Amino acid sequence: MAPEIWEVRFMYDVVVIGAGVTGCAVARELSRYDLKICVLEREEDVCCGTSKANSGIVHAGHDARPGSLKAKFNLMGNEMMEDLSKELDFPFRRNGSMVLCFKEEEKGKLEELKRQGEENGVKGLRILEREEIRRMEPNLTENAVAALYAPSGGIVCPFGLTIALAENAYVNGAEFRFNTEVASIERVSDTGREGYLLRTDKGEIRSRAVVNAAGVYADTFNNMVSGRKLSIIPRKGEYRLLDKSTGKFVDKTIFQMPTELGKGVLITPTVHGNLMVGPTAADIEDKEGVNTTAEGLEEVALKAALSAEHVPGGQVITSFAGLRAHEAGDDFVIGEAEDAAFFFNAAGIESPGLTSAPAIGAVLAEEIAGRLGAVRKEKFQVERKGIFCVSTATKEELADRIKENPAYGNVICRCETVTEGEIRDAVRRPLGAKSLDGVKRRTRAGMGRCQSGFCSPKVMEILAEELGCSKLELTKSGHGSYLLAGLDKENL
Amino acid sequence: MRKDYDIVVIGGGPAGMAAAASARESGITNILILERDRELGGILNQCIHNGFGLHTFKEELTGPEYAARFISKVKEAGIDYMLNTMVLDISPDKEVTAMNREEGLFTVRAGAVILAMGCRERPRGALNIPGYRPAGIYSAGTAQRLVNIEGFLPGREVVILGSGDIGLIMARRMTLEGAKVKVVAELMPYSGGLKRNIVQCLDDFGIPLKLSHTVIDIDGKERVKGVTLARVDENRKPIPGTEEYIPCDTLLLSVGLVPENELTKGMGIDLMRATSGPKVNESMETSREGVFACGNVLHVHDLVDYVTQESEEAGKAAARYIKSGLKRGAAVEVEAAGGVRYTVPSSIQPENAEDKIVVRFRVGDVYKDSWISVYYDKERILHRKKRIMAPGEMEQVILKKEELQKRMGLKKITITIEEA
């Protein structure tokens, strides 16, 4: 595909850098206002960085220091999530969480954690004794002497949330420019109005305001315009994901207090019914270093065994790593930079970033709209309907749907029961999938126990048909990630 | 749609077709095959190499040719089949729920069910290979489909991990299609594939086989750029200092097959740990009455000829079950011992058996000049020397019904390997 170079210069009210969950949440909330918005993303799709590789946890909010932005946005995001999941139709479940304590002498710390949570405004926190833990979660270790139970903890599909926010922003007028990498940002006033000039690999863009939601690169962009330097350290987290047959191993998200092995790992069901263990926490240099390591994966298994001795490790279907955008100041950096007017940071968004995203979006959008003097649109499409999901539909819903469109009767991904109808919808809908991973994140085709062994050739066929391209042009995840090298015998 | 069939066969690959055809020959006229792919034949359709049918037809056929013979049989016998049809669920009382474009969601009530869903390949994730997750990592069977059915080459410079038969076959195929296969690495100190495949697919093309080696890292953020191989010790742990980086754009995995028993589990049928397939008796009947299993869903085979034999037994038994029922009562346990990983069947009710009962099994290690022994309780009744036995090659012993029936009160048949 030839690189697309823009002939014209674009002018926006707000440019959002980064189409992760934070950028998409900000864009969605901004799209309530009469503003010209553009989201710039260097990858080919939304949800390609930190947002796609994390725990998928909606934290209750007891971990953050009282008074911190993390505490504020965590609580607010947690409260918003349920309504939002209905409004935007993405999977969310309030399954509750536990923090396990393994030593009698550390029960005091658990009490402290409870007090901290209460100070943050977390409701329903309760200390569980040994018997109660095992009654609620029979597979957990007997070595857990106490636990902090948080009924408001939940799990969410990080792809589902991000994609829903993006689609809704798009439907409400926000533009998205993918495969576009910002090289520099400069404050300019030559058009009469003050604003920013962004040079990208595709051309120049001007905007009155900029939102920096660039994940592990948020420091780079902030430091281009602000003297108040940020420093983002990529903190790697490795995970192991287990087969759906193990998804009921625990019902709640199981955290650990720190042990002699260091910071704990969690064991959690995912909202789709898998079991997940992880993450590690290792500060690294490479902001692209999303590789898993033998040591990391082993650490995950060892630490998980502290919470439950019999985690079915033989049922692992895949492992992955993500990078948390850890800011040196150890808190979110949110709002207008003091020395760079109309430059708004949403930086240092690490855990509980996923939980906080909807709240960050709402608060930041209101601040930006206020500064720009924007007014709310009369027509804002508040609801979004997701892709019809065959595997969770009732028999009646499914029968009706197939009658309407027989493609929903044609199963493509057998492990996750994803049909041709769902895959076609994933490509055709607003901001549709363009790659195998794009289809996977939207439909779960290829996410099951065979890890796309059976369905990838079929998904490729549908993708090529829908995109009107040759299979040789198809990628796993954009850029140079081509799936096929050529035709049989063409080099002989 | 709601129909009743005497026998519903789940899967229209070699196992399902042979089972259906033999049930038909045994007098059952009311049979339905449900197949998820767009044609009958299963994985044979992408196995365009030869070597199929030496036992069954006494000639060498390609996979599609072998399949075609059974497809004709199914069609000539007038056996009903539905393509592009996915079975979603089978209830304990044998009501099969399935779905396709034409019928939508539908149920079929079956007198007997024959499970013939085959197997799937183990993915990278099951091995916990660390590294990046770029494009260019395929299971060997997926690559085989891309190359042989779709006409696309998934990559040009290839490393293959695992020396299972599909991996070996794909080493040759990729070479023939213009790719460079740099090495086949095998974690175990012996190959998991057939000896003939090592000779014909690797040796004949000068492709090195590195035993006791594995991939410990995958490099490349967009497309695979290379992999790191390392030698492993006797505990299969990589040995530091033996790492070797091999530039390549493709990693093919042939690291084991897993019987696809999600439907079986859904019915609450007992599975065997060693095979991940259902436990069956002499009639290939599972722990649920009237539910039979055969082929790779039961245990992974290396030759389709044996799949056919086993499936014909299952088809006949299912027919007997429908016509006159099977005898119930105390069965003789078949025990896998001393180097034998499992046996199929794992119990025998002599009265239900044909004249001969084939007991298939695999060994857990390589054995040279050792004996296969069969004990009826404490008495050794068979002691057969084999020059070589390996986990990659299925073994069998044949028991006579007559002999078994003579021994009243026989409790256990033990199959074991006795070393020199």
TrEMBL record, chain A:
It holds the Pfam family DAO. SUPFAM superfamilies: FAD/NAD(P)-binding domain (SSF51905). Residues 411-465 form the BFD-like [2Fe-2S]-binding domain. It comes from the Bacteria. Residues 13-366 form the FAD dependent oxidoreductase domain. InterPro entries: BFD-like_2Fe2S-bd_dom, BFD-like_2Fe2S-bd_dom_sf, FAD-dep_OxRdtase, FAD/NAD-bd_sf, G3P_Oxidase/Oxidoreductase. This is Glycerol-3-phosphate dehydrogenase. It comes from Murimonas intestini.
From TrEMBL, chain B:
Residues 5-300 form the FAD/NAD(P)-binding domain. One of its GO terms (molecular function) is oxidoreductase activity. It comes from the Bacteria. This is Thioredoxin reductase. Pfam families: Pyr_redox_2. Keywords: Oxidoreductase. InterPro entries: FAD/NAD-bd_sf, FAD/NAD-binding_dom, Metab_Enz_Cyan_OpOx_G3PDH. Coiled coil: none annotated.
